[in-house]
Amino acid sequence: MAAEQLAWGVMEEGWRKGPWTAEEDRLLIEYVKLHGEGRWNSVARLAGLKRNGKSCRLRWVNYLRPDLKRGQITPHEEKVILELHARWGNRWSTIARSLPGRTDNEIKNYWRTHFKKKAKVSSDNSEKSKARLLRRQQFQQQQLLLQQQQQQQQTQVFDMRRLMSLLEENENRVPTLPQMKQDASAAATTIFPNTIDDHHQVFLYSVFNNSAALPEATNHDQDINWDGLWNMDEFSGNIYYSNSANRATLRTSAATPYY
DNA sequence: AATCCTACCAACCGCCCTAAA
DNA sequence: ATTTAGGGCGGTTGGTAGGAT
């Protein structure tokens, strides 16, 4: 192990590792000029570099390529990253294809440093979410009792404001899609025992369902509710995006009932 | 001034896929 | 049908810089 100790910038099995020197960069650039991209394992032999093919490819793709965009990620790029990550998850290369000049590595690093922490905070909040869910269930039971008392005198009033408050109370939870449908239906029948019909149920369900359509939802610069957004690891496949844009949509819908 | 902490990011690793031999 | 080389991808590591204590 003596001469091949695993440290930065030392030789391992004949290959140099660690940070690239300016001279190595120059040799690699020269190689690509002459031979084009590809055949990376030939670089060592043809360019006189003591780097393996993988290392050369990575250096070129992530750092030396002339079409790379330097500098800070712009707010617009950040928005694109957020939207595409919501859609694709950690498929960094797929996301990178939508951001010319940015590499998957760059985007991945950006994501981890800027947003991963929020995801952790969100995960820490999951216990609180469970407590909120319990309170919500209790609330629904109360509502059911209340509704039974009022049922006799209930008129055919479509009170969307009550629905709004119920939805807002639950804004941070992350239900599954079947739960969402069930909840929408339950909320509707709780509040509108006599009036709810298929038409209204379809509407209520679409309200919940629209909340999961992030690309449209985050095409706004409003404050995003990160708690709901970053919980994807824990709730893979059951993502619920809650943000002010959705609530704004809901308010609009409430003001203009959907018939 | 020294130490600690955090953000940033270049580079590596292991796994996987694909095409050619 | 199998093997192998080349390359892509996502996860992780470790060095560095700068700010906070």
TrEMBL record:
GO cellular component term of the entry, any: nucleus
HTH myb-type domain span: 16-68, 69-119
Main location: nucleus
Keywords: DNA-binding, Nucleus, Repeat, Transcription, Transcription regulation
Subcellular location, record wording: Nucleus
Residue intervals of the Myb-like domain: 12-64, 65-115
GO MF terms held by the record: DNA-binding transcription factor activity; sequence-specific DNA binding
Gene3D superfamilies in UniProt: Homeodomain-like
PANTHER family (UniProt xref): MYB DOMAIN PROTEIN 79, MYB TRANSCRIPTION FACTOR-RELATED-RELATED
Protein name: Uncharacterized protein
Provenance organism: Coffea canephora
